[in-house]
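Predict both folds.
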Amino acid sequence: MRLGVSVKRLRWGLLASATLLVVLVAVFLGYGHYRMRDIEKTIRDRVKQRINEGLTYSDSVGGKINYTLHADSGGEVTGRGTDKVYVLHGVKLDLYGRTDGSVDHVYGKEFEYNSTAGTIEALGDVDMDIEAPTSVGGHNTKPARDAESGAPEVIHVKTSGLIYVKHLGVAATKERVEFSYGAMHGSSQGAEFDNGRDVLRLLAQVEASGEEHGQPLHLTASKADYDRTSNMATFENAVVNSGERTARADHAMTYLRHDSSVERLEGTGSVVLSQGTRQVNASRLDATFTTASVVEWMKLTGGVTLLDSNAQRPIHGGSREAEVKFDAKGSPAKIVATGGANVAEIDHRAAGPAQGLRRTLSGEQITMNFVLGAAAKGAKPKSILRELHVASGAKALGDSWSVPGAALGISTGTKGAPVLKTSQVAADDLAGEFVEGLRGEAELKTLHGKGHTQLQQNTSAGAEQVSTGDALEAMLTTGGTATGSRIESALQTGHVTIHSKPALKADAKPGTKVDVTTATAERANYDGATGKLRLTGNAQVNDETTEMSATSIVVDQPTGNAEAEGNVVATVLGNGGQSGDAAGAQVTHVMSASAKLQHAAKLAEFHGTDAQPAKLWQGASQVQAANLFLDGDKHTMAARPEASGALIHAVFAGANAAPNPAAAPKPVAVAASKPVEKGAERASKRPGSPAEKPPEEKSAGRSVARVSAQKMDYAGLEREATFQGAVRIDGISGDATSQRAVLFLTPVAKGGASMAAAHLGVASGTVDHIVLSGDVQLEQPRRHATGETLLYTAATGRYVLTGTPTHPPRAVDAQQGTVTGTSLTFGDSGSTIIVAGEPAMPKSKGTRVRTETEVRPEGKK
């Protein structure tokens, strides 16, 4: 961000310097008037008769010549009635200074003196050469001398129609008055000196030109007054130009010191200060100057406005008042703008949008401190903004234009496409430090915010981020005129809250909903180079379906990916986060030592160790493993241990449905002890015995399956959890082991409470049935069974155990001995075992029979 300050380039001493020219006119009419008062008596006494041979008269006081009058001819004029009129031709008057040895000269072709009327009138042109008094305008301590001849420099005045009226004490002319001093010259239409009031008036069309501090100077005014009693000069409708600089005021007053240097300046009514395309407007201007007429302090009040119409960098701003302090050379050292202070700039030089890159600053009070920058070769150093302080309601805004591939800090939208990023900073109190940029302009380097700080970053792709906190420290890039300044790093502390909305993908459909993420922490550290945001101190991140807390969370803002470290706790809210709705939505929780989230791919990793595994649970279902991997797009989850051969653990709830005879497995043929006819079936018990009744059903209720294995994979769409390697399942009426097991969970009703959790690949719901395979072994009280495949159905609580032709299923009961067959169907340890089929024997051609064997618990009859 680079904020141009117009006032630093304006010369506030223009009106003060122009006042010198008016003082010179006062010297002519005022000093000439006092000398003419003495000469009047000489004229009256010496020209009562006509003079043909010329006249030279000197007057002296105390042996020192006061003046010398010379006239080529003269005499009394007749025909004027009762008036006594005298005339002098070819007049030259030398006026000698009383103390400094200076000599002033007055020349006129013809002067007429009317003793009756008490007037002296120049009938032609009048010229006057007045040696410059000591310290005219505060520039000299000795009478000025011509650089070449060494002769005194003079103030030269020329006019005509000059008349002095004795009883009024006024010397005046309505003709043009021209005056000059060195390189300074000016004029007015008419002039008047009031002896009684000691006031000089330039009546109209006042103009003055010259040079001040090496710069050309031009003054115009509708009129000007100089009051010698108060030592004050007044200008009406004054306009002063110096190069590109212009100062205007409806009414301007300059207060002079005794050495004629300007001490103070006041401008009121439509004060305008401008340079080139820049302009400052105010109702009032107050300024003070050094004895060398260099401005040292200035204050603008009454609706101060700043406007720069530059096509490349237009600026506008304002405040209720602005105060400026200057250094010894008249360059701004400090500016304080108070009362709704604001400044805004649009930089069209930078590559970017057609509307340009914006930079704005506002607050109740803006304070700027300046230093002299490095001077370019052959040029004078310029004032450069070094420090900035904004108090009460501080706000700053800056645009930057991305370079494709550069980190912007938040998701940018279309890959590789340029994106406009807008950064806004707000605080109760905001301070900034500037450095001199490549173009010799002040560029903002650091920002310090205190109290209710806010950092907002938006992109044209639609990404938004707003963070709030107690304090803010930010570093900005410099030298980036092509793209604008960007935040290089930022640290926000104290009750930090961040709201982020990523940009829509380029192929997103209209109306696509964008998740808003909220984060809280005690510290938020943003790295602009990587686009990563690190949250520490009670760090929490949540969106509409997920909440996560950790010791620290690092968010990669261009992608939305996140990494969490230390005491990670994640919560997935079912049914869009409405955990308390009528559908009874469940909540999925995850705890781990660390986590990684990939936003676009919808991938999540939770990591721990085998000793302290990551834990996931929903309701009564749990998964524990050193590593948990969730895929939201594929709706899958994988659990893996840290070391080879280590185990993962899971717990699933099982549900037992109400008794349902139709769901009970039907008995099938099993090899009997005696051959029977092919296709015949015979029960081992008589009709009506317990063996012919449907298998016993467990009462409706819940049970739990605890599973351990070397790895687990869950498919959310199929609602299947697959375990492999050293599988062990216990807790559902037994303890089973195998090489592989698949748990089938109950289907989720469309729109049901667990849809959101299932969509994220979270194992949830209850067990519908389980299939174990590969070296299956089942331990129940007083029973041990083996086989190759075991099917457990939660609704009936029944097991179906099968084997292979060479390894048929086998059940060993403590009371009944060994039972085998093609399949064995049973429930808990006290249930009937249904044996179906005869175990296949090599080259056996035996027929099939149906047999039921009932195994009763000890003591049961």
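Second protein follows, with its predicted structure tokens after the sequence.
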Amino acid sequence: MTLAALSGLDLLATAVVLVDAGLAVRYVNPAAENLFETSSRNVAGQSLDKLFTDAGVLMTAIGQARATTASYTEHDMELEVNERLRLHLSCTVTPIELTSGVAGIGELLLEFRHIDRQLKIAREERLLDEGQATRELIRNLAHEIKNPLGGIRGAAQLLDRELERPGLHEYTQVIMNEADRLQSLMDRLLTPHRLPQPGQLSPHEVLERVRSLIHAEFPRGITIRRDYDVSLPRILGDKEQLIQAVLNIARNAAQAIAGSGREGDILLRTRVLRQVTLARRRHRHAVQLEITDNGPGIPAALQERVFHPLVSGRTGGSGLGLTLAQAFINQNQGIVWFDSAPGSTTFTILLPVEET
């Protein structure tokens, strides 16, 4: 492989690892660094069997590619990286000629694709399409409901002034209060359609604001920990929208913990990713925000619909928090997904870094 060819691999979304005849790592591209959570400097010269634990399926694929001197794809394998990270991958092994042009058992190009991530992206795009249609339906419905609500409240207000018996005012107050509550709900359903007002900001400003708000709302029983990447670049986004999006996710986590009666733990984590595709656009860098809690988890029956409007797993919940969070994140060119099991739920937000 020439230096020019290697620089071309830097731009690929696919994780690529180049190994020599002895299966020692010669090169990894940025996508592979992200996938395996390591750097090229750390793995250069390292043998594949040292990098990956239990790599029997991978070695079989390499053997097949060498035996046929052609590309071989293993569609489903599990690899453990440095005994800490277990990944579900597909891998294509391609024999390539040495730089000198001598053919034979030489270098191998390994292309890894994260099956779980592919499924998440496909699921995110499907949820996004479904959510778009549902939000448009809800928006039209909200417009239709707002006008009658105003009339109901006005009539109740007029009636309240005419009542002579004090005990009857209680009933008109109920009508007005409920009309106000529904009016607020309709306003929240229409809010995502405000255009974002982007500006340069640090994602840590967003997380710190959310942390202080959650602390104030839940002063006892919940510990909020931070794991920030201090090298995180600034991004272009609507600060208030992003604060509201992260706050909705963190508040859901805190409410789930409070409802479970257990001691709660919320972790706010940030990282920088390279060569990321968001909304079908390729970005050199993106920031990753994670909100992880140790609550009871999202019920399996709700997981496919959790971003849909009016879907809530909590008694008294409006079912709009995650809908609004997804809408605000999408308006800022980002995506959001989650992994949830009892005792561990993580919402991951990816936002692009606009290069200057």
